[in-house]
Automatic annotation (TrEMBL):
Pfam families: Cas12f1-like_TNB (PF07282), OrfB_IS605 (PF01385)
Family, similarity comment: In the C-terminal section; belongs to the transposase 35 family.
Residue intervals of the Probable transposase IS891/IS1136/IS1341 domain: 40-153
GO terms, biological process: DNA recombination; transposition
UniProt keyword annotations, A-Z: DNA recombination, DNA-binding, Transposition
InterPro entries: Cas12f1-like_TNB, Recombinase/Transposase-rel, Transposase
Protein name (Swiss-Prot/TrEMBL): Transposase
GO molecular function: DNA binding
Domain Cas12f1-like TNB residue range list: 172-238
Keyword DNA-binding annotated: yes
Length: 263
């Protein structure tokens, strides 16, 4: 049996052997949380970044220096191709019946599970790398609530089924939970959960609200004719809202917890 990582010399906690639906076994060994030293953080005392969650681009970030970061911009096409293959295999699986095709259905289910695992691993890899980079590079991370369930609920949603599926696939809530878990390792880093009302529809130059923006990728202001990337404009407006409103309100956090902004 080969291990992906070196096993510790001494075990201080109980461990578990877990088997997934593919029959793969994982040995789960709890480890103490490693806390970074304060002097390992970013040198800028005002290192802050505002994040704008999305679908075409998983996360768009903007900081006061004017740097814009797009994370997961080209990954959605690969994930969509895997999802399309999954749908075709599932359609074939559901179309065959009877004991004669029992073995074939079993093999198709195995293929579907492997594709699902591949998609999950791609999403997890994106989440983990982004969370680590954010915590190591910034002292304050502004992450707005992304109400995915409310936007994809049937009968009430205003988006296409393809967009709804990609929104669920990105697992924005799971990323938020992982980021809040990861930030415990970095004593200089704070995560502030904020809101994003009208941040995409508001012009970052003149403040005009573009109520007919729709799903356009480019924000074209009908008032001052400014042209901005929709996601970057949204992230910049989240940062402006924090600097002008939220940062004036007191934020409290106990030892070992994370600070939250207004919910």
């Amino acid at each position: 049996m080969k291990s992906a990582e070196n096993l510790p010399a001494e075990l201080h906690y109980d461990l578990r052997l877990v088997m997934n639906r593919l029959g793969e076994f994982y040995l789960c060994i709890p480890q103490p949380l490693e806390i970074w030293a304060e002097n390992q953080g970013p040198t800028q005392s005002d290192a802050v970044i505002a994040l704008d969650p999305g679908v075409r681009t998983f996360i768009t970030g903007y900081d006061p220096s004017g740097q814009a970061v797009e994370w997961g911009k080209n990954d959605i096409s690969r994930i969509y191709r895997l999802s399309h293959i999954y749908d075709k295999i599932q359609s074939t699986h559901d179309s065959i019946h009877g004991k004669v095709h029992k073995r074939k259905r079993y093999k198709l289910r195995r293929v579907m599970l492997r594709i699902h695992k591949k998609i999950r691993c791609l999403i997890n890899d994106c989440h983990h790398k982004l969370a680590k980079w954010l915590c190591q590079s910034y002292r304050i991370i502004l992450l707005p609530k992304f109400q995915t369930q409310g936007m994809v609920r049937r009968g009430k949603r205003r988006i296409h089924s393809k967009t709804a599926r990609m929104m669920l696939t990105w697992s924005h809530f799971r990323f938020r939970q992982y980021l809040l878990y990861k930030v415990r390792e970095y004593p200089w880093c704070w995560v502030i959960i904020c809101t994003e009302e009208y941040t995409s529809k508001t012009c970052g130059c003149c403040g005009h609200i573009h109520r007919k923006l729709g799903g356009s990728k480019v924000f074209r202001c009908p008032s001052c004719t400014a042209e901005l990337d929709r996601d970057i404009n949204g992230a910049r407006n989240i940062l402006l809202h924090y600097l002008t409103v939220t940062s004036k309100e007191p934020i409290y956090a106990g030892a070992g917890t994370y600070p939250l902004g207004p919910s």
